[in-house]
């Protein structure tokens, strides 16, 4: 993995000490956006389509809210003692909220409104994916008026999208549990701030039904509190009644013993009635009267508590009351089309940028002069933009038909860069090669020859790519110079390119005369560029451009580049791999071929200096 990063960003050891190369500038960001604008727009469009699909296939839901207030109550024995500050802590309020969300309250609401047998209430709010596609299909058919088309309707029903499927039969227990789950999922109970007010919200497909359920939940909670207090008072009253009977019996027995003692006129006190050892002592009259009085006070106390309990059973008061009743909402709470679309747009942009960054990280193709300089150690002599798709497919005479196009201006700038290259001799023998067999190399050779010819230089183009004679076929035609026999000397096979201001040597002559051998090519080129016009029948050429074989044709055929003044490597922007380009450069350097630089073609994001040129 570590080998991937040098292909994308240069290491600090190999790059020059330039601030522009060390940091990512605005031009890099804009170039990144221009390069991956298609990916970003595609992700954005996909996210918006998903959001639109969700909005069209989701039923609107309505939320109704009711509010209740929990009031802390003082115990009965503290109400008469003056003002006492009593407050509820968070745990107590949360306990009340848990009671509202309990299945006991849910069962009370379901029984009151008879929701177990309500088909509209038991319909799921979020449809399944198949149901969503069915609804989308209905919307599309209605939009184009194709609902009456029998073929489309039968095809739609064949895929199970015509009519909704019949739900499976459920038992009473399963139906009750399903209704309970639907109720729990739609109910939302929250505390309002730090107050004792609690908001009860219910979400349903029916606005009237949502208000009814919210109000029924609030009423059920208040009723549950009243019933709980009544039950507690009833149970306490029963226990007090039983205890009163016991105390009444004990009080009567104590009073009877005191009366019996008093009737015997036995007023002995102290230890006179005790035996010598203290055993068999008889209680005194004072003790019997105290015991009877104690039982009487206990009986009166329990009788008062029993009276309070009976009064609470007859009139129980709840600690909560409804302060706001729920009403049917006028507008749906979900889905929110604008919010969903905004969220989808943001998510689509984030996804598109992230996907583009991943593609950029793992993209090992050449996309800028910086990549060429940092990964290959050679300079970029120019960047050529792509030609318009409306024009002819060959693009061999682009500079003639469209002299003011961006392509023509960029190629003129590249020609200037090639002429100013630092070499030991003037550039008269120029070669063009590439990694693979494509048409960009031949198009550059033809247009570059046209530029040299238009500047007053006599120019010759040699189609040395014998395995793929693109130049000869596209300039002379498939039945042109290829069918003519090869003449001696070789210069007699040079022909004028039809409609072009330069001459061409066909690839068949190069193959027949073995001109790819460096010695043969050197002898032929020295003959063409000689100034002794008396020895030859034609004038010498000022510039000779060789359309060399590519790396895919074999490294042995690139040795002929060693006899040239310089070779330009043509690379296609965004398609030529860095490793193959590095292999081509190593092959040329091994054959002692002078490399003038790399010419990028079909560049979509050109650097500023090439745009100004």
From TrEMBL:
The lineage of its organism: Bacteria, Pseudomonadati, Pseudomonadota, Alphaproteobacteria, Hyphomicrobiales. Residues 441-607 form the CobQ/CobB/MinD/ParA nucleotide binding domain. The chain crosses the membrane at residues 36-56, 339-358. InterPro entries: Bact_polysacc_biosynth/exp, CobQ/CobB/MinD/ParA_Nub-bd_dom, GNVR, LPS_length_determ_N, P-loop_NTPase, Wzc-like_C. Keywords: ATP-binding, Cell membrane, Coiled coil, Membrane, Nucleotide-binding, Transmembrane, Transmembrane helix. This is GumC family protein. Residues 24-113 form the Polysaccharide chain length determinant N-terminal domain. The keyword Cell wall biogenesis/degradation does not apply. Pfam families: CbiA, GNVR, Wzz. It is a multi-pass membrane protein. It is found in: Cell membrane. Gene3D superfamilies: P-loop containing nucleotide triphosphate hydrolases. Residues 244-305 form a coiled coil. It comes from the Bacteria. Residues 292-360 form the Tyrosine-protein kinase G-rich domain.
């Amino acid at each position: 993995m570590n080998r991937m990063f040098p292909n994308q960003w240069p290491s600090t050891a190999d790059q020059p000490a330039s601030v522009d190369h060390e940091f990512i500038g605005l031009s890099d960001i804009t170039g990144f956006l221009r390069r991956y604008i298609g990916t970003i727009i595609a992700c954005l469009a996909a996210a918006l389509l998903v959001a639109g699909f969700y909005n069209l296939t989701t039923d609107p839901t309505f939320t109704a809210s009711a509010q209740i207030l929990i009031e802390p109550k003082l115990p009965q024995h503290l109400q008469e003692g003056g003002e006492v500050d009593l407050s509820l802590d968070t745990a107590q309020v949360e306990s009340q909220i848990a009671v509202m969300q309990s299945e006991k309250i849910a069962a009370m609401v379901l029984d009151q409104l008879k929701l177990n047998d309500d088909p509209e209430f038991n319909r799921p709010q979020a449809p399944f994916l198949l149901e969503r596609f069915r609804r989308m299909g209905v919307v599309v058919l209605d939009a184009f008026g194709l609902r009456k088309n029998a073929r489309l309707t039968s095809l739609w029903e064949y895929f199970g999208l015509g009519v909704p499927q019949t739900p499976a039969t459920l038992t009473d227990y399963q139906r009750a549990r399903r209704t309970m789950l639907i109720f729990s999922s739609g109910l939302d109970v929250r505390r309002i701030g730090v107050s004792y007010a609690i908001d009860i919200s219910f979400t349903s497909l029916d606005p009237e039904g949502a208000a009814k359920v919210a109000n029924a939940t609030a009423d059920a909670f208040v009723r549950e509190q009243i019933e709980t207090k009544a039950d507690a008072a009833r149970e306490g009253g029963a226990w007090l009644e039983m205890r009163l009977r016991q105390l009444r019996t004990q009080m009567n027995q104590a009073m009877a013993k005191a009366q019996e003692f008093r009737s015997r006129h036995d007023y002995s006190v102290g230890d006179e009635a005790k035996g010598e050892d203290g055993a068999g002592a008889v209680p005194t009259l004072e003790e019997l009267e105290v015991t009877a009085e104690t039982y009487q006070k206990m009986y009166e106390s329990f009788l008062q508590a029993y009276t309070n309990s009976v009064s609470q059973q007859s009139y129980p008061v709840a600690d909560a009351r409804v302060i706001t009743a729920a009403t049917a909402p006028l507008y749906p709470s979900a889905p929110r089309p604008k919010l969903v679309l905004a969220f989808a747009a943001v998510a689509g942009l984030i996804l598109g940028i992230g996907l583009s960054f991943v593609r950029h990280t793992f993209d090992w193709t050449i996309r800028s002069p910086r990549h060429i300089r940092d990964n290959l150690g050679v300079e970029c002599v120019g960047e050529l933009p792509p030609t318009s798709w409306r024009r002819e497919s060959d693009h061999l005479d682009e500079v003639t038909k469209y002299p003011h196009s961006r392509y023509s201006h960029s190629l003129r700038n590249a020609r200037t860069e090639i002429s100013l290259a630092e070499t030991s001799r003037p550039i008269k023998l120029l070669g063009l090669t590439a990694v693979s067999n494509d048409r960009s190399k031949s198009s550059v050779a033809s247009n570059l020859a046209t530029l040299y010819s238009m500047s007053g230089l006599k120019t010759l183009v040699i189609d040395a790519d014998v395995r793929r004679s693109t130049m000869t076929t596209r300039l002379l035609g498939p039945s042109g110079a290829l069918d003519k026999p090869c003449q001696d000397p070789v210069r007699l096979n040079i022909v004028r390119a039809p409609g072009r201001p330069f001459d061409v040597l066909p690839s068949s002559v190069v193959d027949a005369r073995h001109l790819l051998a460096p010695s043969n090519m050197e002898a032929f080129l020295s003959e063409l560029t000689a100034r002794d016009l008396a020895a030859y029948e034609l004038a010498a050429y000022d510039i000779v451009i060789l359309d060399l074989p590519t790396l895919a044709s074999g490294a042995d055929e690139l040795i002929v580049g060693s006899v040239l003044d310089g070779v330009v490597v043509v690379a296609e922007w965004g398609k030529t791999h860095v490793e193959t380009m590095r292999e081509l450069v190593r092959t040329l350097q091994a054959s002692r071929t002078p490399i003038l630089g790399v010419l990028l073609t079909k560049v979509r994001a050109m650097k500023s200096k090439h745009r100004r040129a």
